[in-house]
Amino acid sequence: MRPRLPATPQSESGGRRRRRAALSFVAVSTLGLGVLVAAPAAQAVPLTVDVVGINDFHGRIEPDDGVGRNTTIGGAVSLAGAVDAVRASNPDTLFVSSGDNIGASTFTSFIQDDEPTLDALNSIGLDVSAAGNHEFDKGQDDLLGRVTENSEFPYVAANVMRGTEHALPPYAVKTTESGVRVAFIGAVTESMPTLVSPDGIAGLTFTPIVPAVNAAADEIVATDAADAIVLLVHEGAADATPAAIGGDSAFGEIARGVSPDVSAILSAHTHASYNTTVVPDDSTVPRPVVQTGSYGAFLGHLQLTFDPTSVGAPRDTVRATLLPQQKLFGYAPGPNPDIKGIVSRAVAVANERGDDPVGTIGGDFLRAFTGSTENRGGESTLGNFVADVQLWSTRDKGAQLALMNPGGLRTDLLYDAETGGVIDYRSVALVQPFANTLVVVDMTGAEIKAVLGQQYQPTVTARPFLKLGTSEGLAYTYDPSATGGFAVTSASLDGEPLVDDTVYKVTTNSFLATGGDGFTAFANGRAHADSGQVDLQSQVDYFADQTEKGLVPTPDFAVRSLGVTATEAPEGGFGAGQQVELDLSSLVMSQAAPDQADPVTVTASLDGVEVATSTVDTAATPLFDEQGVATLTVTVPEGVTAPEAGPVTRSLRIAVAGTGTEIDVPVVLAAAAAPVVVEPVPGEPVDPSDPSDPAAPGTGGGTAPGTGTGTGAGAGTGSGTGSTPTVTAGGDLAFTGSDAATTGLLAALVLMLAGAGALTATRLRRRRALTAETEDSTTV
User: By Cβ atoms counted within 10 A, which residue in 136, 384, 421, 518 is the most buried?
Assistant: First the structure.
């Protein structure tokens, strides 16, 4: 580890007086940023220092084609060419990083503990890097040992302390060929304790960024250690808005509060792209604040110009444009033997390691498809499974549900009978090749519904609907006939309706968390907490856990969302003999369940009695999740007992044969007189509590006198307090609960049916674990 520079007494002004006051300050911007700097006394002519910066590289040493991303990633070869192009135009060039060079990496780098990434950055000639949160993924001992030893550049962090000592150097001073000294102060997000394993950072404290950085700047000024200061901070604004960057946000406090002696801020962590200026609190001169997105797709470029002949010149505030690395200075990637060799060797090792088994599956986990074409608008066993796994991986972060974008699933996870379902690293990595991190976002019930509503994107003609994978326990209904073609009508979690103003913890990947694929409602969430886990690694860990327990994950064919439109409810509810017509959609997935018969049937039952059945049209629906449509006409039977004032809510159980789908749709019914009678099967014993037995003894708790002659307690005139209906002696289903407490709920349901034209559904299907066990403490 590089030793900390000797400490010197702090200046009385707190380091905020201008360095080398007799020297001039001027900034020139071409592709880069105007930056305030001091000129070395020895220089007689203007001198420019170029600073090329990256952030959140995350081991992206291989190029990709941009599919499923917002930008194209050039990889290490292209990055090396871009940096070399700047150096060729100016020998006084420094290459820096704002952290997260490693961790959350793609399979090629991840499988080798990111050694290929460190080798590539060494070869490119990285001068200095801030420590990011992912540098601590394997613990401080790994960072301060293996990582530091294998890095030919220093990691700096002014706000990481062990007691009263710095755990890493607070800054590093780099001297260019012409003798210009630039100090780079490092800092890492204060949220570190929530981002990595507590054991890995035991004994460390992560102090507030602003005072730590300002103390380092004071020291640099007091000791005349450098001619310019740049902050590399692994923290950033949530988005590119002025309020997020320089307003009253947490990052705004950093951008404004850092000493004016710091000439520019290169930020990181949030993977946002912005290039702007912010006026420090103790100054009137704007300061550049930049973040380049992630993965080296864009480069930040600062030009620091020293001109001793232009005393007192004002700073130029021209902003730079962040450019893709392949286009920087017109550079087109060419051969680079050293970098190409590092990458090709890493790929070869990854290919070999890809054959290593990671677990076993009991069937194909498939994306949705129409014929042979992938349909990102359809619900799929693979999408739901990945959401289940990601929820499992972040339960320790308090996560309650998870959502997965279909574009992040690049291939299917296939069962191989020859291996007994054993799958290898490669097959898992190919499903999720982007190595997105898992992020836990605090969202209200209303915001979750807004995200679900953004699945429908009518202005995107190629893919107007993007079906999110949902974790088990989350269910919702929608009206496909609503204005615009889609409207979320209800949502529930573990059988309980989502409450609009209640905050839930939602797991998603970093791509979605920043509004990817048009799901901008995620940005309305708060407390975006990086879990420190990569989607691929979470999948690998899950399979290891299941293997250790002797469990085999199998596909779940039950749908987790349902399209519902219904006959408008009359005032007071549906009465006996009246018909309720339900138009249902999204009843099946494109991947048929093994027990799914042909034709597929759907039934509706009321209080356990089948009241309607229909054949399901399973024809594919390109681009949308409407596969599996049917119309059920339910004639309300006699015998649904309600209080005299009525109405009462009963649930129609919608079940799709052979798929495991069982969804309860509430329907508001009026009072009725006679029971629903189910004739007993000859020769079979009669359950004394069976409502089909007219001689069954009364059990009490009903709202009407029982007619049975058994030993039930009381005459059946009690008010009843149970959560499930009680059977009276006459076989009628008794109304349970308080009439007064129920009136408001029933009225709301009537209004929902009449106004929205859709039934609110609460999904109460049987819970199917991802594994062979139905009850397990690790059920996701």
Answer: 384
Dihedral sign for Cα 453, 456, 459, 462, please. positive
Average pLDDT over residues 684-706: 40
pLDDT, greater one: 410 or 248: 248
In contact, 752 and 666? CB cutoff 8 Å: no
Say what the pLDDT of residue 107 is. Answer: 85
Host domain of residue 455: 354-548
Helices within 228-365 (DSSP H only):
242-246, 250-257, 337-353
Model pTM greater than 0.90? no
- Here the tokens at position 105 are 């990496």
* β-pair type (601-606, 205-206): unpaired
Which neighbouring-strand residues pair with 367?
none
Q: Residue 263 domain-assigned?
A: yes
- Domain end residue (candidates: 347, 382, 406): 347
Any idea which residue has 């070395």 for tokens? Answer: 40
**Domain of 113: which CATH number?**
3.60.21.10
User: Parallel, antiparallel, or unpaired: how do β-strands 474-478 and 561-566 relate?
Assistant: parallel
User: 19: which 2 tokens?
Assistant: 């360095």
Residues 425 and 515 in one domain: yes
Please check whether residue 453 is in contact with residue 467, taking contact to mean a CB–CB distance below 8 angstroms.
no
Residue 743 sits in the same domain as residue 664 = yes
Give the model's pLDDT for residue 638: 78
Q: pLDDT tens digit string along 444-499?
A: 999 999 999 999 988 776 688 999 999 999 999 898 887 767 889 889 999 899 99
Three-class DSSP category at 231: strand
β-partners of residue 47 are 306
Q: What is the pLDDT of residue 560?
A: 95
- Reference 650, options 564, 563, 575; nearest CA is 575
Q: What pLDDT sits at residue 209?
A: 98
Domain count, the chain: 3
Spell out a b/e string for 492-521, using b for 16 or more CB atoms within 10 Å of the CB, else e.
bbeeeebeeeeebbbbbbbbbbbbbbebeb
Contact 401, 473 (CB under 8 A): yes
pLDDT of residue 371: 82
pLDDT band at 284 (very low <50, low <70, confident <90, very high): very high
